[in-house]
Amino acid sequence: MKTSTFVYDGDCAFCTRCAGFVERRIPTGARVVPWQFADLDALGLTPAECEEAVQWVGADGSRAAGPDAIAKLLGDSGPLWRVAGAGLRLAPARALAWPAYRWVARNRHRLPGGTAACSLPQEARERLYGPAGRPSAGA
Question: What's a Pfam family this protein contains (predicted)?
């Protein structure tokens, strides 16, 4: 039987602390693994996707990124966490979650546990947020 996988940026101290919280507090059957140690080809992911957002690859082959991936992870966990995951999938929550997620991704090096290594590479920042740090039209 295949296992679902939640992939995060292992070079980012903030992301690693969040993944540690998941492993300690959220009962999930999913593997929680830094993308640097994951078989990205087998998961159908690219390094660029993994640098930009956390990723979910379900046992059924489904994929999600960012807050949608977090919702999938929560949906694959204990009863209380499943309720939170269901709430995160609601349209109003998603509408708020994506801008919040992008803000966190852009500023993760400034957050508790973050370090300079948490900062997205310049190319990824510009692709996601444009040269002035504002979201690009396609993001």
Answer: DCC1-like
Domain map of the chain by residue range? 5-129
Q: How far is CA 95 from CA 39, 71, 103, 106, 131, in A?
A: 31, 13, 13, 18, 24
What the block records as the tokens of 98 is 């994506």
Task: Kindly report, residue by residue over 73-124, the tens digit of the pLDDT.
Answer: 999 999 999 999 999 999 999 999 999 999 888 887 777 665 555 555 656 6
Q: Which residues pair with 6 in a beta bridge?
A: 32, 56
**Which carries the bigger pLDDT value, residue 124 or residue 9?**
9
Helices (H), 31-133: 40-43, 47-52, 66-75, 79-89, 91-107, 122-129
Only one residue has tokens 């995160």, namely 88
Query: What's the pTM?
Result: 0.80
Asked if residues 139 and 128 have their Cβ atoms less than 8 Å apart, the reply is yes
Report which residue type is found at 96.
L
Structure tokens, 103: 């803000």
Place of tokens 């489904």: 62
